[in-house]
Amino acid sequence: MLSRVADNLYWFGRYLQRAENTARIVNVHGHLIFDLPRQVEFGWLPLVQILGQEEQFRERYNGDSGEAQIMRFLLLDEQNPASIISSLQHAREILRTIRECAPREVWERLNDLHYLLQEKGDKALSRSKRQEFLQQIIDGALLMYGMIGANMSTDVGYHFLRIGASIEQADMTTRIIDVRSSSLIKPKAAEDLAPFQNIQWMGVLRSLMAYQMFRRHVRGRVNGPNVLRFLLQNREFPRSVTYCLNAISQTLPRLPPDRPLQRTLDRCRALVMDADVDRLMLGGISEVMDEIQLGLADVHAGVSKAWFQAA
């Protein structure tokens, strides 16, 4: 397979995963409004922070962090590389050039989502229409995953797509943990936050569609240590960081060998598995999430150097 095609499939997996996760965190964030009392201020800026686009957002919208501006930035702003419309446009452009590598039905469904954004995207800026619109994006992405898994040959191209999706999901999981666990709820007084800690961690789980599986695997309360342990170190939940890294490790033997990449991946996995969750709860969540994100960036750089860059 040409390195250009492999690179495209890798990024197709990343962009599709990014669009679905962005739609999901916006959708869940809106639901949390109904779980919080009036004395707790509800912030929308954490959604921008999760995607690492706060600086660009403030430049483009002159610091106005209202709900309408943030929704437009995350859903429909083509200059925001992390917006849903940008992610799907990039994925569509990639698939247009390599249509022979993926099932035709994936191309058709991606076009449906593209035209949905073009025709009805503005309506999603209002709360009354947003949930239905975002659910269509999520369902469309999940349908494409199913088509890829059921109908795409598990050859080299499939494995590159899987690596891209796994890196993107692991990165998004760490971002959601980092930002949502610290700045989702803004109480007017410090003592107002304590009664809603569990709601906050429940929002973290629901942002990753993890609540039901958490209940199945963890025989305990929804609290910080249990949620962190599940989302970072569980080996069976597909959106946990450890699961994503293990998926990449299982894929590597099917590709041309590259020992430096394997060592980089092993270091990143060790960082996640060795994390002391109880100590993280004392104030070190952001630092460890930053370290994991840097590790994932190293894995991405290793993948690019091993197979996509010209010798």
UniProtKB/TrEMBL annotation:
Highest taxon above the source species: Bacteria
Pfam families: Alpha-E
Domain DUF403, chain residue ranges per copy: 1-308
InterPro entries: ATP-dep_Glu-Cys_Ligase-2, DUF403
Annotated protein name in UniProt: DUF403 domain-containing protein
Lineage: Bacteria, Pseudomonadati, Pseudomonadota, Gammaproteobacteria, Nevskiales
